[in-house]
Each structure stands twice: as structure tokens, then as C-alpha cells.
């Protein structure tokens, strides 16, 4: 996985994002999405824990499991720019309820559940 910083524009605000493997996850099946606001790259704005089952690591289990069970057991969708934009929008909405200026806070932790919903704090499954 490339450790490249990518730029994305969400609601007229520029952000940078990067995806990193969670080295502490038991099975190596979690990622961290880190998002910075353009011009504020000292600390991430948000860090999102995201489950992703790399098909190369889980190949044997994936090909032997029936299709109906595979979709409910494995998270095979990597993070795409459209999903990242959705996560950023959800975080802005979530944080606007708690803080007067949600863009001024630093490194708030979230996680995405299996249904794609954003929640506060790191995932308990890692």
C-alpha cells in the first residue's frame, strides 16, 4: 500500500488523506484513515479505524466460503475517494454538534462499522 498523501475537496474545504495499516491489529485486517485540513498538517484532524480484509491475506478463507456468507463475514471494499469524502462529511456533522468550530480540533478518533456508519472512538474489534 502506498503511503501517499492524497488531496480531496469536500464542501469547498481542502483536505489531505492517507491510509495506513494498523500494525497492532491481531489479524492485520484494520486500516487507519488519517485526514488533515490543508494548511494544518502538524496533527491529523481525524483518525478513522476501518476494517479491511486484504484478499491476499485471507485468500484461502475467501474462496472456500459461500458467496452469501462471504459478504457478511469479510470487509473487502478498500477506501475510495467517494467513501473518504462521505467520512469527512459525517465527521464534520458529528463534530459540529459538539464543538463551535469543528475544523479547529485535532486528532479525533472514529471508526466505521460494518454497515459503513461512523462512530466516535476506535473500533473494539482490533
- The residue fraction in helices comes out at 10-25%
Span between termini: 19 Å
Count of separate structural domains: 1
Low-confidence stretches: none
Mean pLDDT: 76
Helix/strand class: alpha+beta
Q: Which outline best applies?
A: globular
Strand order, main sheet: write it out. Answer: 1-2-3-4-5-6
Beta-strand content estimate = 25-35%
Give the number of DSSP strands. 6
| Order of helical and strand elements | EEEEHHHEE
Estimated radius of gyration:
15 Å
Report on this structure.
By secondary structure, the protein is of the alpha+beta class. The protein has one domain (6-120). Helix content is 25%, strand content 29%. It is built from three helices and six strands, in the order ββββαααββ. The protein has helices at residues 59-64, 67-73, 81-98, and strands spanning 6-10, 13-21, 30-37, 46-51, 108-112, 118-120. It has a six-stranded mixed β-sheet with strand order 1-2-3-4-5-6. The longest helix has 18 residues, at 81-98.
Annotation keywords:
126 residues; 6-stranded mixed β-sheet; globular
Quick description:
The protein has 126 residues and is α+β, with helices and mostly antiparallel strands.
Lay out the secondary structure.
Layout: E1 6-10, E2 13-21, E3 30-37, E4 46-51, H1 59-64, H2 67-73, H3 81-98, E5 108-112, E6 118-120
Parallel strand pairs: 4-5
Antiparallel strand pairs: 1-2, 2-3, 3-4, 5-6
